Amino acid sequence: MDETVGWKANFMHDVLVIGGGIAGLTAARDLAHGGYRVLLLEARDRLGGRTWWKRFADSGHHAEMGGAWFDEGTQHNIAREIERYSLPTVLSPAGQDFRVSLGGRSLARPDQPVPPDVRPDLDKALDHIVDQSRRVTFGSDLDSPDLHDLDIPFTELIEPYADQPLVAEYLSMWAAFAFGCDPAAVSALQVLTWVAGYDNTCWTLDDAPATKFAKGTASLVEALAEDGGADIGLSAPVASIVDAGDHVVGKTTGGETLKARFALLATPVNTWEDIELPIPAGSLKRRFAGEGLAGRAVKLHALVDNVPEYLMASGWGGPLCWVSEQADFDGGRLLVGIGSDDSAIDGTDAAQVQQAIRQFAPEATVRKCDSHNWSTDPYAKGTWTTYRPGQLARYYSDFSVPHRRLYFAGSDLARGWAGFMDGAIESGAETAAALGRRLREDG
After folding, report:
1. Interacting residues of 358 by C-beta distance below 8 A, sequence separation 6+
2. Of 315, 364, 385, 410, which has the highest C-beta tally within 10 A?
3. Could you tell me if 151 and 182 lie in one domain?
4. Do 34 and 148 fall within a single domain?
5. What's the pLDDT at 10?
6. Shortest CA distance to 18 belongs to which of 419, 405, 440?
């Protein structure tokens, strides 16, 4: 993409793409490959959206502040892009020293997530989750009336195990880590959808997606941006989109006016209300945007001394649900930590981060740490896709439906791996294909 030439030129583009995350970049590339004149506007001074391969603190190393991991075996959209651009990938270091903190105490865990006497009860709970996931067809029909009884708070799904505290806490931690919110705030149907996506295997914290880009998510972002030839403008937040009948008019907060035959909105759902959109009040998309998504995770990185080699820890009751080593340098170990509530800890405060990590490694000493608060980021207003109970039943059928000349894309609207980079690619590609057909029909 050309980031400097032509984006303010006074001519009609075929498509105005709003949002330079992976969905917007995928859509812009595909449309440009189709021969259409595409202008992409990104509010930030960088591309990538909710992915951000950023220099870690004041070191010479980088860390993923946002999306990082994927599984090429089940996430075929990102696997296709990796092959297309020959992007190198690596596995995160495998855990060797496993620790669990449940019930207010640390539990020895050489090979079990819970004490042996509790494992049969946990297995029953996981079997129940797997059985329910078999009712789900991954990637389709998530608004089926047959599934409405599953579009409930995850805490209701595991309520039969509430009298078994360690089991309930383990399952709560599992959902909080995976979806970045209180377990009561995420739809059990979304949890079950992920299980279905893993071939109805109840993946555990130890074998969740662990592959990442060897040169960071920036390698994918740059590959998409350089392919296709669309125009691009950075630091160009869009304030409004007006449907003028046979074209659309976009206005930036800086006062620029852009015209295009169609517009494609590829920003997070939680930001839609900040843009004046030609969508009727009371419509499904208006209601969805008004409710917003539930993800408010904290993700932090810390260079730490006095922790075991290749620590992998999980727990409930502290600000972090999961901690794992990602690299080692300068004699310390770089840990990544994820918690379900970004208001519970300041991921840039070394003292707070050290206290949180000491839940799992009591001797840990934090040298430096870094984080980005996606909930207070005005162009994200939340973390990865986490549907509230009932939202799939109410809005899933409307995800890919355009409104006149305005189309929609994003990981939040993916049919399959919503919340992952794979979902962003899926939605961007499918929306571009649909818009390409409309452009041909429109002449």
Report:
1. 364
2. 410
3. yes
4. no
5. 62
6. 405
Average pLDDT over every residue of 189-217: 87
276 contacts 29 by C-beta, under 8 angstroms = no
| 57 located within any domain | no
pTM listed for this prediction = 0.96
Contact predicate 183/175, CB 8 Å:
yes
Radius of gyration of the chain (CA): 22
CA angle 295/300/301 to nearest 5° reads 150
Give 319-331 pLDDT, tens digit per residue.
999 999 999 999 9
End-to-end CA distance of the chain: 25
Tell me how far apart the alpha carbons of residues 396 and 408 are, in angstroms, rounded to a whole number: 13
What pLDDT, on a 0 to 100 scale, did the predictor assign at position 4? 42
Q: Which two tokens stand for residue 63?
A: 């860390």
Q: Which residues contact 28 (CB under 8 A, 6 or more apart)?
A: 1, 15, 17, 38, 40, 228, 230, 232, 432
The residue range of the domain holding 162 is 114-197
* 171/119 same-domain check: yes
pLDDT of residue 436: 97
Q: Do residue 285 and residue 224 come from a single domain?
A: yes
Is 103 part of a structural domain of the chain?
A: no
**How many helices (H) and strands (E) are present in the chain, helices listed first?**
11, 18
* Same-domain pairing of 193 and 222: no
| Token pair recorded at residue 5 | 């030439």
Distance CA 320, CA 359 (A): 9
For the CA atoms of 31, 33, 35, 39, the dihedral, rounded to the nearest 10 degrees, stands at 50
Confidence grade of residue 103 (pLDDT, cut at 50, 70, 90): confident
Which of 196, 217, 273 has the alpha carbon at shortest distance from 65?
217
Check which CATH number belongs to the domain holding 174 and give it.
Answer: 1.10.405.10
Query: Which 8-state DSSP code applies to residue 412?
Result: G
Give the total number of structural domains in the chain.
2
DSSP 254-267: TS-EEEEEEEEE-S
Cα-Cα-Cα-Cα dihedral of 130, 136, 137, 140, to 10°?
Answer: -140
* Contact between residue 323 and residue 313 where contact means Cβ atoms under 8 Å apart: yes
